[in-house]
Design goal:
The chain is mostly helical and 137 residues long. It has one domain. It contains 8 helices and no strands. The chain is globular.
């Protein structure tokens, strides 16, 4: 089961990797998000762990760290994961000129075992925030 979830996080990271998520993950905005949610130590741990892997370099280090980081949040703060993940995505989406692939994200959240109603509510809120942010750009 954990292998399935690890694969889910890798695939979710690959989906977001088509967007400039790597730029966000090294930004001050992401650092602020980490501080606000007391996640700095976890992120730094997975970033160092990924940097220590000789088969990873460049963007793959950041993407691997992000996948491990999402898994960490899921396992340690499962009841808050949807909220934290949507907050992270909302923060990230403010800095990109396109919309997030919200419909493509939903199947991954279903695979993680979240109820469809909770996912729909979370993704609806994310869409609303994206529209509001797009109007202020």
């Amino acid at each position: 089961m954990d292998d399935d979830r690890s694969q889910t996080f890798r695939e979710l990271t690959a989906l977001l990797g088509a967007l400039p998520i790597g730029d966000y993950l090294v930004s001050e905005d992401f650092s602020r998000f980490l501080r606000n949610h007391d996640l700095e130590d976890a992120w730094n741990e997975y970033l160092v762990l990924s940097r220590d892997k000789p088969d990873l370099y460049g963007d793959s280090v950041i993407k691997n760290a992000f996948s491990l980081f999402l898994s960490h949040i899921f396992h340690r703060r499962r009841e808050m994961f949807l909220s934290l993940f949507s907050g992270l995505l909302a923060d990230f989406s403010r800095g990109i000129p396109c919309t997030l692939p919200v419909d493509d994200i939903k199947p991954f959240l279903l695979l993680l075992g979240y109820p469809e109603a909770a996912i729909d509510h979370t993704l609806f809120s994310l869409r609303v925030r994206q529209k509001a942010d797009a109007q202020t750009r």
